[in-house]
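Example for tutorial group B:
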C-alpha cells in the first residue's frame, strides 16, 4: 500500500508554473514539489496500512485454506519481497504449529531448505502481474469519480482547496467513498493473483506445495480443487473489509497531504 500510494504521488503531475512576474514565493514552494508529493503519498500509505494491519493476517490464513480458519468466510516490491515472504510465513502459524520461532529463524530456514535466495522470491511473478491491474484500476477509478463528481456536482461534492481556493477538491467523506469504491473494484479484478501469490509464498508450509511451484500450476491447482468462488476468490469478502477502508484512508490522506504540502 505504501508503494502504491507513493506511485500515486509520482503519477500526479505538478501544476503548471506561473507566468506572472514576481511569483518568487510560489516558485520557491514548487522547488521541492516531487519531495513533498512523495511525502504525501508515503504518509497516506502508512496511515492506510496501519488501519488494516490486523486483517492482513486473517486474510493470509483464509487464502491458504488453513484448517483452523475454515469458518472464516516494482523495484520497491522486489527489494522488500523477502520481508513479505517471512511475514506471510509467520502470519500463517497458529498455536501449536510453530514451524518458525521468529524472524531470524524463518530467514535461515527458508534460505537453507528452499533454494537459497530464490526461495525468498516464490510468488513474485503473480505479485508483479497483479500490481498493474490493481494500481491502474484503483487510480483510474478514483480519478474518474473525482473528475465526474467535481464536474457535475461541484457544490454538493466539492469545496475550495485550503492551499489554493481556485482549485476544487472533494469533501472528506466523498473522498473516503470514492477511495473505497476504487479499492473494491481494483481488488476484485486482481484478487486471483493475490491468492496465487500467498499460496506460492507459503511454499513448504502447505502439504500440496509441490503442485504449486509456478504461477500457472498454482492457479490450476486452486481452481481444480476449490473452483472460482471458494478458490481463486476465497476470502474476497473479508478482503473488502480490509481493502475498502485501506484505499479510502490512503486516497483521502493523500488528498489532505497535497493541501498540507501546497501541491494543488
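The residue assignment follows.
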Amino acid at each position: 500500500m505504501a508503494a502504491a500510494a507513493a506511485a500515486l504521488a509520482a503519477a500526479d503531475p505538478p501544476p503548471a508554473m506561473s507566468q506572472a512576474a514576481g511569483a518568487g514565493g510560489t516558485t520557491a514552494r514548487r522547488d521541492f514539489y516531487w519531495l513533498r508529493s512523495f511525502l504525501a503519498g508515503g504518509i497516506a500509505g502508512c496511515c492506510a496500512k496501519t488501519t488494516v494491519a490486523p486483517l492482513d493476517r486473517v486474510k493470509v490464513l483464509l487464502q491458504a485454506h488453513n484448517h483452523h480458519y475454515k469458518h472464516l468466510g516494482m523495484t520497491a516490491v522486489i527489494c522488500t519481497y523477502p520481508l513479505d515472504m517471512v511475514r506471510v510465513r509467520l502470519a500463517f502459524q497458529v498455536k501449536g504449529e510453530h514451524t518458525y520461532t521468529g524472524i531470524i529463524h524463518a530467514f535461515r530456514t527458508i534460505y537453507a531448505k528452499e533454494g537459497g535466495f530464490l526461495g525468498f522470491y516464490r510468488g513474485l511473478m503473480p505479485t508483479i502481474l497483479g500490481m498493474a491491474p490493481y494500481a491502474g484500476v484503483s487510480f483510474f477509478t478514483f480519478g474518474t469519480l473525482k473528475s465526474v463528481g467535481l464536474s457535475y456536482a461541484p457544490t454538493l461534492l466539492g469545496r475550495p482547496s485550503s492551499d489554493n481556493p481556485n482549485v476544487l477538491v472533494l469533501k472528506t467523506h466523498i473522498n473516503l467513498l470514492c477511495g473505497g469504491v476504487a479499492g473494491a473494484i481494483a481488488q476484485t479484478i486482481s484478487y486471483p493473483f493475490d491468492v496465487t501469490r500467498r499460496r506460492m509464498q507459503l511454499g513448504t508450509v502447505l502439504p500440496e506445495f509441490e503442485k504449486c511451484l509456478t504461477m500457472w500450476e498454482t492457479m490450476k491447482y486452486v481452481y481444480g480443487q476449490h473452483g472460482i468462488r471458494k478458490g481463486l476468490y476465497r476470502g474476497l469478502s473479508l478482503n473488502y473489509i480490509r481493502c475498502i477502508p485501506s484505499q479510502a484512508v490512503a486516497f483521502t490522506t493523500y488528498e489532505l497531504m497535497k493541501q498540507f504540502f501546497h501541491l494543488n
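Residues 14-23, 63-73 have pLDDT under 50 and may be disordered. Compare this with the pattern of hydrophobic and polar residues in the output above.
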